Amino acid sequence: MGLWAAFRRWVTPSKAPLLNIAADEGEGPVIIFLHGIASSAATFTHVIPQLSDHYRCISFDLLGFGESPSPADATFTIEEHVDSIRATINSLKLDAPFILVGHSLGSLLAARYTAMHPSKVSRLVLVSPPIYVPPNQIGDPLVRARVGAYMRAYEFLRDNKDFTMATAETLGRLFQLEDILDVSERNWQAFVLSLKNCIETQTTVSDIASVRVPIDVVYGSLDQFIAPGTMRIVEQMRQVTMHRVEANDHLVRKRLAKRLVSVIDSGAELAQKAR
What we know:
Helix content is 44%, strand content 15%. With 275 residues, it is α/β, with parallel strands linked by helices. The chain contains 10 helices and 7 strands. α4 links the parallel β4 and β5. Residues 1-12 have low confidence and may be disordered. It has one domain (3-132, 202-268): Alpha/Beta hydrolase fold, catalytic domain (Rossmann fold).
């Protein structure tokens, strides 16, 4: 973002729509959860019940997804998503920094939010982050080819609406993901534009590099959307701790949920001892 654009955002009151707060459960230190693309706060069904006895767990539906608004003029850039996240968090009037957890697209938004508002976040947890860099910036030809394949696949999904919707419906039915996986007429615009403007075109590596609070990355060994070459860049950053979950794919299934809860709890214990 240029200096003039940043100045205009600072002096111009934001009219970002508030997001639907799908859950606000428990008492204690606050954890805010951001779900991924083509989903909703139902992503964290296996997580929040394990934490709400000693944390205040708050989950949002992202702009255009779940029960959140989908403005007709929205372009679903990372800036628009983060602006609505910021406005919604501000509406909660929280007294202390919180733990921010993002899954998939939500992890990219969480990284950008933390980079922009460093005093608000005490710890950042990125779950199944689809982190990519432009293929022309990748030296390893195998990694470059794999990232290029991801980009072509995403473009195919955006350009073939009927196929994408039908495939999502079939997968949801086969794997009982109807509450988690949703690509429909209602969120189609949010889906294709978020895919294009947030996942395919991202600066997440530089966002993570600028964050100074501890970062945990939790991901499955079978995650179909992880680019190993890019993940190696992230794991070399000294504020980042990697947590690989065997036999788990991209979704927050019970195995990954259990590890995520453990990571959050252990991080809170370390922070308490450091005080």
